[in-house]
């Protein structure tokens, strides 16, 4: 009777997930579930229908999924994320007069009232629906319209499944309310969510006393693959500047043979699109990428958008740098410190188009060499708008590219970078050591809105971070931190040999810098497969691959323990029936014991269930029942349990087994 | 160097208060504080300035308030709400290079570095600022620019308060980020937040056996004013239909003398803009409004937008009602129930302009008679868009008009109506009886975002609601529920004589309907001032007026007690140093005793403070110290303490008194 606008009486709000009012995309991997909820209601007592719809951004065609009422005007629906790339989802809802009419009719009949006048109302609705249908459906609806006014047969027809289905299909949607936002969804490939990173300096990949090469890295691939890593991250592989080169242990007085920091990018032999001559050639990189691919490994390069004073850009594009009033180029600085070997770009340069375009060209250059993963150095010191633009440009063409944000900065800045498009992000994991810190931080990451845009990548160490835990905790601390990283995080990484071999010497007391850091010199590592804790690294990566529960973070739940030194948590893949329970002794020096109070429902267990916990690290198996169970962990043997949880099932032949 | 758009590097988000992304207004009364917080940050390490700004909606001129950093990239600022009407507030932020420069310079000087080059950078900034200034300020800045490059005098000048102030005033704001939303704020008069409502049926205001009149209501005003009420709410005063008139106790067989329900509006003598002839005339209403105003009382009328079959609209505008296929007008119904005495409007009528316009005319008609407060009957059964439009139209001209929403419906619908513009809202208070219910519900109302748009008005009873608590709890239940309503809610109301006189008889067991309900018949009440619990009502209203702490709801805090039957909470007006602590025994049958664990900080007390709690109901005074204190409440005397909390202060002459 009135125009559709006036009839849009349904209110849709409180939609989740929704990042900053739809300004930013939620993230999923292909095939992953997208569960959407909303408050949907109208004035009066009308019945509603509510539909979740989604489409690839490139298509105008929506796919619709009926939402279900959860009560209290909350509705829910879900769909599996489609192909990699950008998608949209939204909600539409409208008033369902036929559903309300059928309910009303039933109430009248139950009260023994004459349905006559109601049947006429229904007849009009069915007849209108026939007008919207075509073919056989239209004919069926026309026939129903004829029959439904009959006081004897009408009520039965009104309640029939066939008519209900047809009336839903040919519903009058002219008054449909459309949620004002088409919310963005970015779908990545699986490695965006589940990945094990291995960082190594290629120049240390060779034999002792020789500058390693990319070809040497190829010879290390079998070991890295057997350990179970699937991303091999190399610090910058570009020519290194001579000007103000840093010496070993970051001294300012290098000798002629010192190799400098790989982050001081650019020399006469080239800049961001060149390979350091002593590492090899572009072809060597292609060979490495191909060999890694055969081993199921992505090679990740470092995007460090800064220059040494010797970088070709400095000569060719002085306008891309900031100048002091005296005409000199502004160094990187953190007053009173100055970093004389680094010139930051001036992203606000008048030649913004030129600089930004060149950096995009650099990224695309490496993509053309087969690189699909980038670790981005210090993204928080470049404009937010730059990253949103760059990542957007890249992923429009290549949606499978992964960007890891190296921003150990303020929480809101870290989250904002993730929102702008970074696929994964370093976290504060390295500095979350106590039980209270771990529980609070990972509950925030896995159980709040953060989980929809921020994918954590947990690093117990990096070339910049040798935590005090690792400096003073010995082998137990390495294993405990490794176990936490690999099981709290579906994505995690280690700065390789230094970690596996237990390198724990800091440059000085109170510093987190490594002594003889590879950032400034070549290190000769023991590449023997059995050295250090490589067996435990291997076992953990194997467990991660075998257990889908560990391949995502959203199911993370902490369980109460009565010791501040023992943290317990579980992850569960309900669909595949996989549950992993991890218990870690955070004290690297003493045996700790106590009771774990399991939230059984989070483990897929009922109150009375017996179950087996099978320690995938030690091989031990324990039979538990009920929520309260005893654990004891001696750091001298293993500071952690990684349990597969198996419910006991009694077979028909009265023979027990564990699922 | 680049355009301002590219330089807008500051991100502003996480703004609160903000209702549904700025779609709806927050509410304050004139002079009330508006505290705003936001996440504000940029890339890199730049310093920011952040400003909260506000303006009346009718003015383009912003007033600015500098925000302060709370740490972790959170900023805060505040202002006092202006005159009644609609306002806007927003946030702007920009990078503060001079502030960063001054910090950098100080760091260099502290490290003994040569400031030379830095001073030149500063000189350029000061010189640029001089270009933006005029008059004496420009001259001063020009002089500073000359002097600041001097290695001896420059550093001192850079740190000087005068230069800092001038540089802030003439800051370069070309790269300012403006928060994308100008958030709406509705400012109401004080009664919107703090009001005590008294509901009575004017036809019961006279002598027994006689139909009361509006003139009789005038004779009741002194009592109502002395009891301390400031809103007198009258159910519909319009002519009542004859068709299908309901008899006493909602029977369908009225006698000729039965008066019918005031909500069956409209008869041959007129409709929504007429006064029932037996109540009097429009002039009588004007007289009542004037007399009430002299007593400091607003008269509130009922907006019940529905018609009896005898309403003039039914004849003159049949198109404003919904018709059945058989041509009859659709009654109100809740199948299988039909309400034959009521026709709802069809707000979707083709003549929407005519119907909506007429209802606005009705409201404006009563405003022209001096009415400034409306209680709106069942707003949730009319379109949301109608209310937003109607209230918006009314308040544009008359911003001091108050609308109370009578929607005892689903929580999200109640909240949505408040967002659409209702000034106050009935709540679920009547059905929140246990301690757990009370704590959960009022924490939600006072401590979540709800508090910015939903102003609760608490009614222990209404003509529709005689709760089981009141049916079975006796005098103690009446006093306890009254105390809860009057102190949990800055606004509350009672359905008058029935409450004060302890009317507790339901029409039948299990029903919340009054026996011999005034909805269907005249009642003869005892108007004697000392009858029932009028003295306690009077005392509570007096306490509310004396204690600013009770005049708002945002400060409400619950305190732990070790009894499930004892609820304790406080309100505080920190500015005026007023604190009230309320302790209620929820059990009307037994004495309850236990310890209250006070959160002393919420009472404005320190851990070691001694304090006096002065029971404003009984007059008793108790000397307490520390957080844990004993209470005992006998429902046969008084089931509640309403304590003024007074901190003990030791004077210089070693003489104690209580603040």
- Average pLDDT taken over every residue of chain A: 94
Q: What does the radius of gyration of chain A come to? A: 30 Å
Largest interface, with counts of residues having CB < 8 Å to the other chain, equals: A-B, 52 and 52 residues
Fraction of residues in helix of chain A: 25-40%
Number of strands of chain A: 31
Quick description:
With 659 residues, chain A is α/β, with parallel strands linked by helices. Helices cover 29% and strands 25% of the residues of chain A. In chain A, α10 packs across α11 (384-397).
Explain this structure.
Two copies of one chain form a homodimer. Chain A is of the alpha/beta class and 659 residues long. In chain A, 29% of the residues lie in helices and 25% in strands. Chain A has 16 helices and 31 strands. In chain A, strands 23, 24, 25, 26, 27, 28, 29, 30 and 31 form a nine-stranded antiparallel sheet that branches. An eight-stranded parallel β-barrel of chain A has the order 11-12-13-18-19-20-21-22. In chain A, α2 (97-110) runs antiparallel to α3. The radius of gyration of chain A is 30 Å and the shape is globular. Chain A starts with a helix and ends with a strand. Chains A and B meet through β1, α2, α3 and α12 of A and β1, α2, α3 and α12 of B.
């Amino acid at each position: 009777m009135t125009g559709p606008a006036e009839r849009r009486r349904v209110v849709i709000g409180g939609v989740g997930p929704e990042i900053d009012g739809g300004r930013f995309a939620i993230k999923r991997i292909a095939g992953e579930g997208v569960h959407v909820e909303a408050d949907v209601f109208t004035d009066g007592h009308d019945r509603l229908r509510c539909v979740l719809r989604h489409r690839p951004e490139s298509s105008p065609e929506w796919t619709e999924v009926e939402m279900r009422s959860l009560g209290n005007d909350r509705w829910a629906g879900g769909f599996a994320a489609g192909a990699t790339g950008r998608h949209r989802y939204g909600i539409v809802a409208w008033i369902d007069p036929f559903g309300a009419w059928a309910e009303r009719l039933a109430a009248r009949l139950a009260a023994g009232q004459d349905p006559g006048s109601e049947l006429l109302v229904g007849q009009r609705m069915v007849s209108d629906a026939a007008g919207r249908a075509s073919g056989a459906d239209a004919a069926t609806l026309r026939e129903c319209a004829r029959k439904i006014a009959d006081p004897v047969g009408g009520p039965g027809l009104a309640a029939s499944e066939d008519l209900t289905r047809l009336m839903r299909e040919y519903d009058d949607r002219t008054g449909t309310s459309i949620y004002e936002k088409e919310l963005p969804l970015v779908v990545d490939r699986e490695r965006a969510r589940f990945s094990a990173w291995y960082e190594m300096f290629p120049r240390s990949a060779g034999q002792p006393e020789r500058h390693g090469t990319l070809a040497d890295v190829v010879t290390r691939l079998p070991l890295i693959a057997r350990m179970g890593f699937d991303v091999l991250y190399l610090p910058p592989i570009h020519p290194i500047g001579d000007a103000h080169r840093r010496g070993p242990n970051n001294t300012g007085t290098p000798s002629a043979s010192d190799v400098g920091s790989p982050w001081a990018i650019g020399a006469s032999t080239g800049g961001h699109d060149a390979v350091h001559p002593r590492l090899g050639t572009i072809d060597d990189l292609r060979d490495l990428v191909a060999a890694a691919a055969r081993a199921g490994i992505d090679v990740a390069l470092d995007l460090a958008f800064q220059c040494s004073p010797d970088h070709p850009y400095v000569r060719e594009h002085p306008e891309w740098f900031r100048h002091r009033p005296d005409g000199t180029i502004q160094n990187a600085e953190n007053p009173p410190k100055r970093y004389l070997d680094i010139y930051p770009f001036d992203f606000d340069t008048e030649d913004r188009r030129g600089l930004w375009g060149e950096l995009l060209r650099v990224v695309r250059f490496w993509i053309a060499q087969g690189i699909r993963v980038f670790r981005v150095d210090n993204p928080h010191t470049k404009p937010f708008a730059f990253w949103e633009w760059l990542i957007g440009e890249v992923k429009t063409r290549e949606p499978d590219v992964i960007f890891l944000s190296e921003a150990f900065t303020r929480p809101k800045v870290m989250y904002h970078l993730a929102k702008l498009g970074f696929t994964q992000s370093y976290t504060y994991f390295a500095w979350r050591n106590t039980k209270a810190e771990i529980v609070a931080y990972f509950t925030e990451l896995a159980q709040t809105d953060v989980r929809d845009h921020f994918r954590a990548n947990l690093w117990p160490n990096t070339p910049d971070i040798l935590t005090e835990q690792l400096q003073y905790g010995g082998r137990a601390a390495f294993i405990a931190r490794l176990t936490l990283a690999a099981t709290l995080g579906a994505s995690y990484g280690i700065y390789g040999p230094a970690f596996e071999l237990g390198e724990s010497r800091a440059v000085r007391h109170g510093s987190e810098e490594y002594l003889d850091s590879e950032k400034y010199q070549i290190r000769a590592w023991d590449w023997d497969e059995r050295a250090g804790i490589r067996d435990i690294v291997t076992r953990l990566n194997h467990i991660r691959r075998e257990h889908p529960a560990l391949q995502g973070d959203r199911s993370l739940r902490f369980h109460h323990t009565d010791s501040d030194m023992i943290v317990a948590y579980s992850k569960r893949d309900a669909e595949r029936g996989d549950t992993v329970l991890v218990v870690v002794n955070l004290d690297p020096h003493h045996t700790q014991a106590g009771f774990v109070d399991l939230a059984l429902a989070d483990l897929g267990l009922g109150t009375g269930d017996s179950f087996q916990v099978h320690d995938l690290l030690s091989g031990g198996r324990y039979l538990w029942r009920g929520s309260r169970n005893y654990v004891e962990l001696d750091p001298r043997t293993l500071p952690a349990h990684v349990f597969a949880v198996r419910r006991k099932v009694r077979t028909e032949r009265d023979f027990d087994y564990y699922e």
